[in-house]
Amino acid sequence: MTLFEKIRCLLTFGQGVALPLPELSADTTPTQLFEQWFNDAKKSGVLLPEAMSVSSCNADGQPSSRMVLLKDYDEDGFVFFTNYASRKSHELNDNSKVALLFHWNVLQRQIRIEGTVEKISRQESADYFHSRDRGSQVGAWASKQSQKLKSDNELKERMSHYQEKFSQGEVPHPEFWGGWRVKPHAIEFWQGRANRLHDRICFEQKNDSWSQHKLHP
Ligand SMILES: Cc1cc2nc3c(=O)[nH]c(=O)nc-3n(C[C@H](O)[C@H](O)[C@H](O)COP(=O)(O)O)c2cc1C
Asked: What residue ranges line ligand 1, CB within 6 angstroms?
């Protein structure tokens, strides 16, 4: 079987096999449904089920997207970690409006999240930073994320410099590195169904409570 045939087989596997959206009660929160779907994605064997796209906008309104890893979530939002001097962080500082996207193709599921970002506390960022492997901690110091690389050697030299500098004891948590929390105000769950008659359910937050409605596919 060719790679293309295998991929098509996986994609059509969901057709008609995928379950419809569960019946939701009026007080189901999108976080509860997210948890069910995220657990399904983890069980499905998808590589990096926590990978999600983050879209930000620059001052001209030009959107840009990139993948990051979801590290935490609860009713307050969805957390990822990055360099606070990176392109995405500059854009999020200037414009806190943000969109996240998950796609788990074997499950024929997509989740779209729209909201605003805020930085998590220094302590939370430091705790997570120190839970990472040492190489990633030193790498965070070495990388001037999103800046132009002067030469191929620049990064290697910076990595060697910080490996030596932090050869003893704990690697300090850099000021310029930490987490963003995406506080959602709209979340859409998309379940692929046969004949392109997909299920879409949207949650919208108004006055601290969530309303639900469905959309045509
Ligand atoms: C699967 C995947 C996961 C990633 N996870 C992260 C992450 O958690 N944090 C991060 O800063 N970059 C992550 N990256 C790299 C980003 O996609 C991106 O290249 C980097 O953050 C710089 O983006 P920016 O220049 O737009 O700020 C990941 C890339 C991939 C493909």
From this structure: 48, 51, 64, 66-69, 80-82, 86-88, 145-146
Q: How far apart are CA 80 and CA 61, in angstroms?
A: 23
> Nearest residue CA, atom 6 of ligand 1?
68
* Beta bridge mates, 80: 180
Mean predicted lDDT score pLDDT of the chain: 93
What CA–CA distance (Å, rounded) separates 25 from 31?
13
CA 16 to ligand 1 center in whole angstroms: 34
Q: What is the mean pLDDT of residues 164-173?
A: 97
Residue nearest to atom 18 of ligand 1 (CA): 66
Give yes or no for a contact between 179 and 71, defined as CB atoms under 8 angstroms apart.
Answer: yes
Determine whether 196 is an active site residue: yes
**CA angle in degrees (0–180, nearest 5) for 60-61-67:** 120
Give the phi and the psi of residue 160 in degrees, each rounded to 5.
-60, -40
What pTM does this model have? 0.93
SS3 196: helix
**CA distances from residue 207 to 30, 187, 204, 210 in whole angstroms, order as listed:** 15, 16, 10, 8
Average pLDDT over residues 149-156: 95
Domains parsed from the chain with CATH numbers:
3-122+174-214 (2.30.110.10)
Model pLDDT for residues 60-113, shown as the tens digit of each residue? 999 999 999 999 999 999 999 999 999 999 999 999 999 999 999 989 999 999
